[in-house]
Amino acid sequence: SSLLNLDPISKLYNRRWFDSKINEFTKVTAKHMALFILEVTGLQFIKTTLGQIHSEQVIVLAGEIISSFFPENTTIARISFESFAVIIEDISEMETEALAKNFETFMAKHNNSTNTKNVLISYGYAHHSEGIINMETMFVNANSFLHLSTLTQYERAKHFYLTHFVKTIEQKASNREASKHCKKILVNEFSRLLNLTSYKRKKLHQLSRLYDIGEIGLPEHIFQKKETLSEMEWSIVRSHTMIGEKLLTEFPEYKGIANFVLYHHENWDGSGYPYGLFKEAIPLESRIIRIIDSIVAMAHDLPYRKKIACEQLIKELKKGAGKEYDPNLVSLILPFLDKNKELIKTCP
After folding, report:
1. Do 3-153 and 172-346 come out as alike in CATH topology?
2. 12: burial class by Cβ within 10 Å (0-12, 13-18, 19+)?
């Protein structure tokens, strides 16, 4: 029967248990009780863009954070897809308010740490001082408090998670600042060579930072594997372009580059993915990033191979022109690379 009261994902009590607890306390005379309702803001966004498995990982993380923060005389339950309830007995109103403020500080410290996975948790609470407890009223009041703070939180949550996703992807690079610097210079040079408008240049800079954002949806072990990936693993890797496109369409300011993210692994000869587009059917921005990504990758140590020298990198670009890469763009950028070999050395 105890299993019937447990949530299978968070391993905390479930809504069935919580409802029985509400019935147990209702119309009981008691002093000093607090009810917190905590919501993982933006969890539906994570489920929609990255899938059920990732949303469940966030639920587990949120449950662990909540359990580690609240005192021992606390009972905690997961009561809906994104919500948890915490019942605390023998706590004054002043202590409840202090606990709420401490939770904000605790979460800020957690999310500012470079060694943790970030999660955004909003809260509301209600306190009972004395007399007959009405748990339903406390629940309504705690939820009202919560929704006062979450009415504008969804958009904030999306940007919060996107920032965290970008940071996580960048931290996978052994020298992310050098890689960012290299990409910035290459974007500026392509923009100059192609005489791009300031608007297109801005979009290309956005794209250079976000084109691999879909990798956040891939299993961690794939990035660490030193052996050749299996066909199944490669199919998972190839899905990152579609994940990235789906994620960025959630943001009005990034919708303009979502398609470029989707197509940035298409090849000039039609051998790329996800759709096998070829030549000018591939957007110009995607063709540019295809080359920039390859330059940075070849100048970068990866788990399965070492970086290559600038001379060899230039040979690889020439070899790939007309196959992986737009030959006209390769011809444009080669003189710049030949004159700026030191730049390639600073990319990794």
Report:
1. no
2. buried
List, as one string, the DSSP characters of 195-247: T--HHHHHHHHHHHHHTTGGGGGS-HHHHH--SPPPHHHHHHHHTHHHHHHHH
- Among 229-243, 297-311, 317-331, the minimum mean pLDDT is found in 297-311
Q: Look at residues 329, 285, 340, 341 and name the one whose alpha carbon lies nearest to residue 193.
A: 329
What is the band of 163 on the pLDDT scale with cuts at 50, 70, 90? confident
Q: What is the mean pLDDT of residues 226-236?
A: 84
Are the beta carbons of 348 and 299 closer than 8 angstroms?
Answer: yes
Query: Any long-range contacts for 234-239 (C-beta under 8 Å, 24+ apart)?
Result: 238/265, 238/273, 238/274, 239/214
The CATH code of the domain at 3-153 is 3.30.70.270
Pairing relationship of beta strands 83-89 and 74-78 according to DSSP bridges? antiparallel
With a pLDDT cut of 70, the percent of the chain lying above it is: 91
Phi, psi angles (nearest 5°) of residue 164: -65, -40
pLDDT one-digit tens code per residue, 247-303: 999 888 898 899 999 999 999 999 999 999 999 999 999 999 999 999 988 887 666
Share of the chain above pLDDT 90, in %: 53
Cα–Cα distance measured from residue 210 to residue 280, given in angstroms and rounded to the nearest whole number: 22
Specify the amino acid at residue 159: H
| Domain positions in the chain | 3-153, 172-346
Query: 95: burial class by Cβ within 10 Å (0-12, 13-18, 19+)?
Result: middle
What CA–CA distances, in Å, run from 270 to 198, 253, 284, 323? Answer: 30, 30, 15, 8
Please tell me the class of the 172-346 domain: mainly alpha
